[in-house]
Specification:
Helix content is about 25%, strand content about 15%. The chain is built from eight helices and 15 strands. Strand 3 (about 315-320) and strand 4 form a beta hairpin. It has helices spanning about 30-40, 75-100, 100-105, 115-120, 125-145, 165-185, 195-215, 230-240, and strands at about 290-300, 300-310, 315-320, 330-340, 350-355, 365, 375-380, 385, 395, 400-405, 415-420, 435-440, 440-445, 455, 460. The protein folds into two domains: about 30-215, Up-down Bundle (Ferritin), CATH 1.20.1260; about 310-460, no CATH class. By secondary structure, the protein is an alpha+beta fold.
Amino acid sequence: MSLSDTTPCNEESHTELVGRVSEHLSSRRSFLTNTATIGGGALTLSAFGSGTAAASSTEGGSGSDGDDGDEEVSDIDVLNFALTLEHLEAAYYNEFLDEYSEHDVERSDVAAIFANDSLRYSTYQFIQAVRDHEEAHVEALTRTIDDLGSTPVEAGEYEFPYDSIEEFAGLSAQIEAVGVSAYAGAAPLIENDDVLAAALSIHSVEARHTSYFRVLDVSNPYPNSFDPARTMDEVLEIASQLVVGMESGDDRDTLVSEINDNGHYARFPFPTKPDTWARSQNPFDRSEGESRWLAEPASGGEVRCLVENLPANANAGFDVHVGPLGDLDDVTIESEVVRTQRDSGALLAVAVYLDADDNGEFFEWKDPEDSTDAWVGFGGDSEGLTALPAGGTVTVDDSTEFPLFHVAEEGAAATLGELKAGDVNGADGTTIDGGTNAAIYVGALSAGEGREEVVVKSVDVHTSDT
């Protein structure tokens, strides 16, 4: 069968990926280049050019030209985009099923979450069923593109970052959620009603896949009232991180998606919107105590990033890049948190709050709403970086003292201390660099014993002039 058939497809899809379709869609050439690269096929613009069904509003989509020379995305473009994701998913599940046996899965902690034996000892078969769905999607999409007179994108070479069945369950939930958002974002672009109906039938199956793997990952199977949608470029940005030899586009890694409407932590990379973006150094790396990232979509120039579950007895570092805002094209915050008491409770979280002022020319440091379990510090220079302690605003330069919030024990109120800029003896040797650089100190302590000492090493914030 093909997607143009009126018979519904019993396959899965991506619902959390292709959002904000109306907000922006980068150039068609950029999109097609990314799709071809990820898919491994030798696609060119001629593959979707006029003279094929792709240019038809009844069979292949609009394919009209905009005033800026960028062509609108056709149904063929969307179909190849979906095929790119389905190739990736099919390869992902086949790799897992080749590596792990039914015996391995049934005796894993993942399957053990089911008290019912029939569910526990069917886990492997359920994963096989998901794989079969993905392969059916690949077959249906490929045949549809062939029937419309165009060239289907080919599968690529992938590398999936999991080392255990437990990690596989978590990554599966993430990948499926990406697929869900992808279909949600792409659906409004589809002109052909039959293709749209089939794509939506895939989307709903992908959503069920997501819920199942969230159960295996011991997380909320349906955390949101509404799932986000992502643009094609946003989805391909995420998918590229799983393709051998590819790096995410325009030198921009991404943070997380699956933002819960109640503010719970999220776990998949995504670029924040509308005017800022953030990134983690390695968003897929869960090896260090399974650290998790949280980011909120930017609103009015604001972005919040959080990483929780930092590993005990180990150094934990992260990068956050925010830009562009006003005259600061790229501000980089590289923060490293080091625990000094190796027998103390584990760090829980590090939070970064940045905002642009009304003119978009400098950032403000925003103290977390609940500072009873965290301490934060900020140092800046005359470029206009500011600090916002609770109850007031402080502008700092290379000779200004800045606030350091901390709490020493569970339930204690946050206290305010001071660390002089440039004081190498302050905060266990941390320093602030003057000139065009500033240092940011960020940390959070767990509510437990022995958490009095935490060292945050100095880091630089570079403006676009450095």
